[in-house]
């Protein structure tokens, strides 16, 4: 990583994320406000230690480096601009550029949080949907898939920031698109995100219903099915339905053997054994098995990359760990 790249990352973030301001960059990086101001005026970070400090604060090693140096590079942006201006014409490079930018935004969500991305993602999702509606030719189906993923991600960001009334229609749209496009991994994930909303609302029967719907989606990736079975088991445990919860945990364990060695689906890259530990921690906590829950949660949290261990999305699991240790 060259030292000048930290300054480039900061400038790209500020220019492409309307809700992120200089004060937020100061908080995230620990840099002085005067340093951030000089960077915004075009200066570089000359000291290697300050560069690494800034990149660590921004999560650049895993996410923002990809956003700034790959997905939002000039070539990718030019391909997207070309696609916008060529109504109906689609080529593989433009579809790939849209997919790259989406992948980078997902990684950025992991370390910066959803709030900073909501406005930008909404605009991107609308653009992708418009282009997919106009697309013709051999690459149209691929663009429609990417557009559906953008809509689903838009729904997720609204859900994770508590904007449930906006999130649900977006997830409906993503689910319908996934069915039309015969995309089972995308379909299962839309159902999973809907179940997440019910969990956030405290609607446990709804949680169970939708995680089970995701779990039973024909053609879903084994890693998805493992996670959905565990989270449905958590719901059954909360309802006092211990037998159903244990049965689902057994099914999840058997499925995990099938999923072992398989990379998670691209659209649900976070479904690693580390993440499954976190879900298992919630399920065992729901069953009242605090020692097991604490072990699973601690293992999962410790296994996260350093830039994600205190990310916004981990708050639920850190609170559960505190509860399990009481």
What does this structure look like?
The chain is mostly helical. Among the domains are: 1-58, 434 Repressor (Amino-terminal Domain) (Orthogonal Bundle); 61-177, no CATH class. It contains 17 helices and no strands. The chain has helices spanning 4-16, 22-29, 33-40, 48-58, 60-71, 74-85, 92-112, 118-134, 140-160, 164-180, 184-201, 204-215, 222-238, 242-259, 273-286, 290-302, 315-324. Helix 9 packs parallel to helix 11 and helix 12 packs antiparallel against helix 13 (222-238). The termini are far apart. The relative contact order is 0.07. Mean pLDDT is 83; it is low at 59-74.
Look at the helices and sheets and give the structural class: mainly alpha
Strand content: under 5%
Query: Termini, distance in Å?
Result: 43 Å
pLDDT averaged over residues: 83
Key terms:
74% helix, single chain, 0% strand, mainly alpha, 434 Repressor (Amino-terminal Domain), 17 helices, 326 residues, globular
Task: Detail the topology: elements first, then pairings.
Elements: H1 4-16, H2 22-29, H3 33-40, H4 48-58, H5 60-71, H6 74-85, H7 92-112, H8 118-134, H9 140-160, H10 164-180, H11 184-201, H12 204-215, H13 222-238, H14 242-259, H15 273-286, H16 290-302, H17 315-324
């Amino acid at each position: 990583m060259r030292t000048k790249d930290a300054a480039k990352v900061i400038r790209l973030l500020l220019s492409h994320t309307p809700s992120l301001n200089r004060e937020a960059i100061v908080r995230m990086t620990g840099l002085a406000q005067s340093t951030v101001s000089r960077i915004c005026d075009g200066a570089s970070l000359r000291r290697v230690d300050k560069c690494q400090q800034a990149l660590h604060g921004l999560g650049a090693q895993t996410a923002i480096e990809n956003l700034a140096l790959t997905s939002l590079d000039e070539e990718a942006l030019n391909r997207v601009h070309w696609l916008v201006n060529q109504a109906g014409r689609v080529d593989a490079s433009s579809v790939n550029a849209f997919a790259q930018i989406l992948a980078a935004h997902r990684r950025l969500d992991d370390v910066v949080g959803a709030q900073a991305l909501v406005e930008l993602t909404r605009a991107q999702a609308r653009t992708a949907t418009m282009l997919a509606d106009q697309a013709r030719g051999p690459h149209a189906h691929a663009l429609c898939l990417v557009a559906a993923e953008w809509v689903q991600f838009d729904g997720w960001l609204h859900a994770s920031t508590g904007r449930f009334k906006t999130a649900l229609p977006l997830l409906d749209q993503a689910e319908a698109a996934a069915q039309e496009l015969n995309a089972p991994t995308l379909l299962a994930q839309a159902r999973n995100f809907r179940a997440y909303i019910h969990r956030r609302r405290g609607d446990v029967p709804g949680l169970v219903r939708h995680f089970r719907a995701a779990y039973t989606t024909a053609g879903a990736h084994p890693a998805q099915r493992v996670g959905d079975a565990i989270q449905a088991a958590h719901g059954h445990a909360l309802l006092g339905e211990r037998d159903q919860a244990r049965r689902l945990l057994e099914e999840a364990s058997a499925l995990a053997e099938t999923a072992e060695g398989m990379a998670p689906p691209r659209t649900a890259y976070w479904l690693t054994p580390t993440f499954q530990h976190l879900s298992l921690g919630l399920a065992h906590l729901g069953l009242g098995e605090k020692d097991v829950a604490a072990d699973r949660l601690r293992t999962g949290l410790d296994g996260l990359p350093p830039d994600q261990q205190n990310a916004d999305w981990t708050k639920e699991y850190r609170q559960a760990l505190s509860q399990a240790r009481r």
